[in-house]
Amino acid sequence: MTVQTKNPKKASILTRDKRRENLGRRWYKFSRNPMSIVGMTTVLLVVFLAIFAPVIAPHPEAAGKFVDFANASLSPCWRYPFGTDVIGRDIMSRIFFGFRFSLTMGMVVLILVVPPGVTLGLIAGYNQGTWIETVIMRITDIFLAVPPLVLALAIASVLTPNLFNSMIAVSLMWWPWYTRLVYGLASTLRNEFFVNSAEALGASSAHIIFREILPNCISPIFTKMSLDMGWVILIGSSLSFVGLGVQAPKPGLGTMVADGSQYLPDQWWISVFPALAIVVVVLGFNLLGDGLRDMFAAEEV
Amino acid sequence: MTVDNLKTEILTITKMKKYFTIGYRDIFKRRPITVKAVDGISFTVKEGETFGLVGESGSGKSTVAYTTVGMYRPTAGHISFRGQDLFEGKNGRSLSLKKEIQIVFQDPGSSLNPRRSVKQILELPLKIHRRDECRTEQIVRLLEMVELPPDYMYKYPQTLGGGEKQMIAIARALAADPSFVILDEPTSALDVSIQAKIINLLIRLQNEFHLSSLFITHDLSLMRNVASRVAIMYLGKICEVAQTAEFFRNPYHPYTRMLLSSIPVVSEDEEKLKPQKIISTGEIPSPVNVPSGCSFHLRCPRKMDICSQVDPVMIEAEKEHMVRCHLYEQGRQGNNGR
Amino acid sequence: MNSEFLLEINELCVNFDVYGGTLKVLDGVNFTVHRGEKVGLVGETGCGKTTTMKSILRILPMPPARITNGEIYFKGRDILEMPEEKLRQVRSEGVSMIFQDPTAALNPVFTVGQQLEAVVKYSVEGKSLSKKEIRERALIPLREVGLPDPERMLDTYPIQLSGGMRQRICIAMALVASRELLIADEPGTSLDVTIQDQVLRLLHHLVQEKDVSIIFITHTLGVVRETTDRVYVMYAGRMVEVAATKDLFANPLHPYTHGLMDAVPKLTGGGIADGIAGRIPDYLNPPTGCRFHPRCSHAMDICRKEKPAFYNKQGGVSDDHQVACFLYRDGEK
Q1: Does any domain span residue A12?
Q2: What is the interface pTM, i.e. ipTM, of the complex?
Q3: N or C end of chain A, less CB within 10 A?
Q4: Residue B266 neighbours by CB under 8 Å, 6+ apart
């Protein structure tokens, strides 16, 4: 009895159709909550503004070294929708460029933090009950015990204050959250029958950790990453606010809030608009994260 | 019967015990609370045979399965496959030994990884154990073997029905080309018409690939149609072992009779086969608090004084029919109470 | 509406709106229960038994689900049109449900007593009772279900109890609430056979002593045979056969019922028949006409086109044996 090999083209069409169907179902779940759409739109808008800042911003020169005392401290008007600061730089343009710093910080921190954090969590969860788990989790516990902002401040003040170093600081205290999240998931999944089957078949630990357990953790990880973007941006802005992050004259959002704080309440727009920008970005990521969580929620019958 | 004796033994379990420590009675960790999941069992499976293991919850039957496949190490005793001890050495068994013994789990929902497609699930054993040949072809053949169409390869477990998931689990187990398959309640979660299909498929595959198997279920009617020999377990020990027809026609142990009399059947013919109704009173004791003497004495309608003090040993009441009960020991009245 | 029935369901149709379209799950369900009767509802996973029962209590989640047709009468009153207040009365005095998995049905963080008392408190008359009276009320069903030491039971947590006991607590909770109709969804499926035996005998005893009617939902034919007076067989959202239990097992008529009976492993040995070919239908695009026709070895042309009504097997064992199959349209085939 000869067996026809499945036509490979038809096979890939089937996979494509399946993927499309899965995507459709996921979108349906995501889109049922209007706030998720709001979140997603906000994030997309911020990303767009950040990427195209040089082209879209009405006064792109305001992001760099620029002075224009003639137009300093103007309250919001048609030409400068968010007003200008004390040296005449357009706040709105600076905010667009400021999004770049925020998003960069968020992405870089997550890229630095997620792979090692997740891997450690997977290893600890899979090797539950052994010394490996104990070592990893106790180290994690130590890092978690230190208040995050304090640790970030300590690190950032030892190193030269700039965006890069503040990213390092935040990364060093952020990874344990992922380890702990994934550890919890992995230690439960470890006892599922499909893991036992893989072991009975003779699969290697690496396969089990990365191919069997990890795919089941992806959803909570992505949700957390989205929510974390907001948090990291907030912390980054806080560091900038106290002078340890983005340094003036660069338009970091936190830096801008700090710069403008001395002019409150008269020239309120110098602080308030950057602060609102932070709120908008963080809120956007939070709503997006909630929506992702709904989307990945357990499949119903 | 003599033909049976000539068949070689493929799996031998000798005085196996598996205890779990689930906590301690005091904070200094001196007095552990132990679950005696399996408390000294011995049996042998011959080549080509389907050995049935039946029992209620807490009987330890699943623990026997999990230990045999390597998920646990026995606390005492030995399990050997074709003469080779499975738990020699500390590093676990070799890959070639692993492939020989495979398992199909009870719950199809959790035995397939929901994030892997059927293709990926079936590819794993092929990748580990067979290096040659085009894998897609092999997967198609595996699917055909369990009577599923080839395009099921691209499906994910959520879109499959319970029966189909079990068929994939069976295909996965057989993909490793084992000699011995353990089936732990493979159809308990399924509807009766799907169960029928899967059981018949299993029987066919077993004959086709000359497999030996350990079939575990609590459904005695199913066991009657599947196993060639049956052993019944209660609280970690085997109570009775016999050839299937003999087991059902002539049950000795009071627990066996109690179970058989409680099965709901669908026809008058079957009713006539059931032993006289024994109403079970009381709860099934937990394997943490095993009663002294014979573990069944609290529920036994034929309890004697000795039963609460001394644990009976397995004796051969009739040819190839073993039972572990004081009622049948030498010197007691030979009446086995029908 | 026929007033001699305790419960009457007429031509119930329920749809579910999901991604991809509408699942036409129930397609004209007819079902009756008399007082003091034990009625079985046999059907495999996905046939719609739980949906039907949830419709009686109106606990279906009403976005996705929609009742598009049909009536449900309990003691002569229209359940589907009832306002919320009256419905609560029905739920607290008339009909209650025992779910399949007793572990999942009991809240692990409350004691048995707290859960039983909650049921009493939220019943219509519960508002006027004192704390002591509520506790007294909660004890009654515990005694009725034969649990040892009921007073101490009130203070235990479900996790400390075995599966059989939990199931009995669920039955007790159902009895606290209502005294007329119990819907038992697979009682004992998750239990061992000896414990299941005990639970089923308890339910039998309740019917005798308390004049409670019970609907047994199950996919295990053996259980149905031993515990019910009358049986409905359900397939893909419709009832396909109904008869007195004795008659159904002595003489199954519908091809699906035949298939089910054949597929059950028998104590007499001899192997198992091959089950029923095919899968349960896709409710998004269910088969036209008789929903069983794609899997039926006796399918005729008309089966694809029209829905069969219930036919009596003339000259059969009893007039109450009805089957929804064109094979019996003109009496016994």
Answers
A1: no
A2: 0.85
A3: N
A4: C221, C222, C225, C249, C261, C264, C266
CA distance B10 to chain C (A): 25
Contacts of B244 (CB under 8 A, 6+ apart): B52, B223, B224, B227, B228, B229, B230, C269
| pTM for the model | 0.84
Give C19's contacts in chain A (Cβ within 8 Å). 24-25, 28-29
Question: Higher pLDDT residue, C326 or A124?
Answer: A124
Range of the domain at A96: 32-295
Mean pLDDT of A154-175: 81
pLDDT tens track for C99-108: 878 788 888 8
Which one has a higher pLDDT value, B280 or A278? A278
Superfamily per CATH, domain B2-328 = P-loop containing nucleotide triphosphate hydrolases (3.40.50.300)
Return the residue matching tokens 């300590």.
A154
Tell me how far apart the alpha carbons of residues A143 and A139 are, in angstroms, rounded to a whole number: 7
Whether A39 is in a domain gets the answer: yes
In a domain, A234, yes or no: yes
What confidence category does residue B11 fall into, taking pLDDT thresholds of 50, 70 and 90? very high
pLDDT in tens, C273-320: 887 888 888 888 899 889 999 999 888 888 888 888 888 765 444 567
pLDDT tens-digit readout, B19-49: 998 877 777 777 888 888 999 999 999 999 9
What's the CATH code of the domain at A129? 1.10.3720.10
Domain range list for chain B: 2-328
Asked if residue C55 lies in contact with residue C14, where contact means CB atoms within 8 angstroms, the answer is yes
Give the pairing of strands C213-218 and C181-185. Answer: parallel
Residue of B nearest to C256 (CA): B193
The B32-46 sheet, strands edge to edge: B32-46, B9-24, B76-81, B84-85
Task: Give me the number of domains chain A comprises.
Answer: 1
Residue A147 lies in a domain: yes
Window 20-59 of A, Cβ < 8 Å to C: 24-25, 28-29
Q: Cα(C77)–Cα(C90) distance, rounded to whole angstroms?
A: 10
Average pLDDT over residues B57-65: 89
Q: What is the Cα–Cα distance from B106 to B219, expressed in whole angstroms? A: 13
Instruction: Mark yes or no for CB contact B124/A216 under 8 Å.
Output: no
